[in-house]
Amino acid sequence: QLQLVESGGGLVQPGGSLRLSCAASGFTLDYYAIGWFRQAPGKERERVSCISSSGGSTNYADSVNGRFTISRNSAKNTVYLQMSSLKPEDTGVYYCAAVRSIIGGCRRPETDFRSWGQGTQVTVSS
User: Distance between the two ends of the chain, CA-based, in angstroms?
Assistant: First the structure.
């Protein structure tokens, strides 16, 4: 069974940092692009960032570009989202999901992503 588990969320003050982890079990992430998504209360889920299966290509939503960094560690079968300069509007439940793809995975629509984790809550508040 393909499963992703997010962790690392919490309560942080504006301007602070958090690192989220997305760990895989039951399969290797090496052939999957991984996306990070978030959903704020009362809002639709949005894609925050994505990293290709090779790690050579990344993209970010405009709202987080320059503040968030996505990376992957094949040895640990884990993808990370380093979040810095956090703002209250970054508050939400953060999810990771996978799409099997050697090339162009991050150009796939959200509906192609599978193995959604349970999410981890991020709250940015003073």
Answer: 40
Q: How many CB atoms lie within 10 A of CB 96?
A: 30
Query: Residue 52: which of 107, 122, 124 has the closest Cα?
Result: 107
Q: Are 98 and 1 in contact (CB under 8 A)?
A: no
- pLDDT digit string (tens) for the chain, length 126 residues: 689 999 999 999 999 999 999 999 888 999 999 999 999 999 999 999 999 999 999 999 999 999 999 999 999 999 999 999 999 999 999 999 999 998 889 999 999 999 998 999 999 999
Structure tokens at 60: 């970010």
Contact between residue 101 and residue 53 where contact means Cβ atoms under 8 Å apart: yes
